[in-house]
Write a structure and sequence with these properties.
Blueprint lengths: L4 E10 L8 E9 L3 E5 L6 H8 L7 E6 L2 E2 L5 H7 E4 L12 H10 L5 H14 L15 H14 L4 E5 L7 H16 L3 E5 L3 H7 L2 E6 L2 E7 L1
Parallel strand pairs: 3-8, 3-9, 6-7, 7-8
Antiparallel strand pairs: 1-2, 1-4, 4-5, 9-10
The structure holds adenosine-5'-triphosphate and magnesium ion.
Length: about 220
């Protein structure tokens, strides 16, 4: 049986400062169900690639396919329905007035019932040990707490594929174990993921494929 392609780029170029490309001729295929870690030095272009794959940034040229559909034919909201994304900086996606509302925010705009939203929020608050913070203003949380809230909010939407940018940044050891357990269970359900990380231990224990990015190019791509 052919494996479904979750993400594919064909000869993708991107530049913040034309004409100098940051991402050059990038060809990458990630199959659904694969857990891939994207590693590389500061400034290599990892977060930029994450923003391109979620449609937030537009490539200068080349093609991007999300579950077989070309990006330019897809509105951002369609990509967001399939790909759950957490920014490297959690402040970039906190927008509700309480943690509980933050977790249910996307569901509210997916027209889910209040009962469904309450049940999902409760489960995720419990899973990430943030029940006691449910009524706190998200921007007042500690860095690691913010990280857990944005990951919980992303998972609430039950995406088919996850892109998490530095998901362990700010998390203590116990919370990294909890996150790894959650990701392991999603992998068992066939959910694919791209984990952008500087945490090599986390990357190697949660991914089966490693991509190394240097100066806008994938310099190594191997299975563990
Ligand atoms: N909005 C922007 N405008 C101009 N240049 C940018 C912008 N965002 C990022 N860059 C530049 O693009 C390069 C790649 O940035 P990016 O954030 O993708 O790197 P990264 O691999 O994620 O690094 P890190 O490991 O520090 O998170 C950097 O040199 C950065 O300064
Ligand atoms: Mg980055």
């Amino acid at each position: 049986m052919n494996k479904e392609t979750a993400i594919e780029t064909r000869n993708l170029f991107f530049s913040y400062r034309p004409p100098c490309p940051l991402i050059e001729a990038l060809n990458l295929t990630v199959f659904q169900g694969e857990a891939v870690a994207l590693l590389g030095p500061n400034g290599a272009g990892k977060s930029t690639l994450g923003l391109l794959l979620t449609g937030i940034l537009k490539p200068s040229s080349g093609q991007l396919f999300v579950f077989g559909e070309e990006r330019r034919d897809l509105p951002l909201c369609r990509i967001a329905q399939r790909i759950g994304y957490c920014f490297q900086n959690p402040d970039h996606q906190l927008l509700a007035v309480s943690v509980e509302e933050e977790i249910g925010f996307g569901l509210k705009y997916s027209f889910r019932t209040p009962e469904y939203i309450a049940a999902v929020s409760k489960k995720l608050l419990n899973l990430f040990e943030i029940e006691h913070l449910s009524q706190v203003f998200p921007l007042h949380l500690s860095w690691g707490e913010k990280r857990r809230v944005v990951i919980a909010a992303c998972l609430a939407l039950e995406p088919d594929f996850l892109i998490l940018d530095e998901p362990t940044n700010g998390l203590d050891e116990k919370q990294i174990v909890i996150l790894s357990r959650v990701l392991g269970s999603l992998r068992e359900q066939g959910i694919g993921m791209l984990l952008i990380s500087h945490d090599h231990r986390f990357a190697h224990s949660n991914a089966e494929r490693i991509l190394l990015m240097e100066e806008g190019k994938i310099s190594r791509d191997y299975y563990l």
